[in-house]
Amino acid sequence: MTEEGQEEEEHAVCVKGERIGLQARPLAVLEAAGHTVVLLDPDAELRPYGQFENLFAISPGGERAWLARLPTSSTGDCYLSAALSSDGDLEATSFSGYRVVIDPRTGGIVESTFTK
């Protein structure tokens, strides 16, 4: 496989057996509330400045179900990690120093805690 072909494969996820291309390499792919939740690599440098909204969910039909808002409006903010807790909550950390709990059905922030 060529380097370009390998990069294309790294920039995709499978949802219900269908390959869906992404704009960057996924750092995390989780199943929550019937969606495939994807965290894109924050170092992908897809934007020269501003925020990078890099946490979203894909529905079983392959469409984007939601895009998680960031906990601040700070330039350069993005999500660095995403995981499911033992309680099944979707938890994420942001570059700006927040730990958030996100509703996996809607992508809305349920709880936000500053940790720095």
Description:
It is globular, with a radius of gyration of 14 Å. It contains one helix and ten strands, in the order αββββββββββ. It starts with a helix and ends with a strand. The N terminus is likely disordered. The chain is 7% helix and 44% strand. The protein has one domain: Thrombin, subunit H (Beta Barrel), CATH 2.40.10.480. By secondary structure, the chain is mainly beta. The strands form three sheets. The chain has a four-stranded antiparallel β-sheet with strand order 3-4-5-6, with no helix packed on it. Strands 7-8-9-10 form a four-stranded antiparallel β-sheet, with no helix packed on it. A two-stranded antiparallel sheet has the order 1-2.
Task: Please give the structural blueprint.
Layout: H1 3-10, E1 12-15, E2 18-21, E3 26-32, E4 35-40, E5 55-58, E6 64-67, E7 79-84, E8 90-94, E9 98-102, E10 109-114
Antiparallel strand pairs: 1-2, 3-4, 4-5, 5-6, 7-8, 8-9, 9-10
Helical region count? 1
Average per-residue pLDDT, rounded, comes to 90
**CATH topology heading:** Thrombin, subunit H
Total domain count: 1
The geometry reads as globular
Gross CATH architecture: Beta Barrel
Report the sheet-strand fraction. Answer: 35-45%
SS elements, strand count: 10
Main sheet summary: 4 strands, antiparallel
SS class: mainly beta
- Strand order in space, largest sheet: 3-4-5-6
In percent, how helical is the residue content?
A: under 10%
Distance between the termini: 43 Å
Unreliable segments of 5+ consecutive residues: 1-6
CATH class label: Mainly Beta
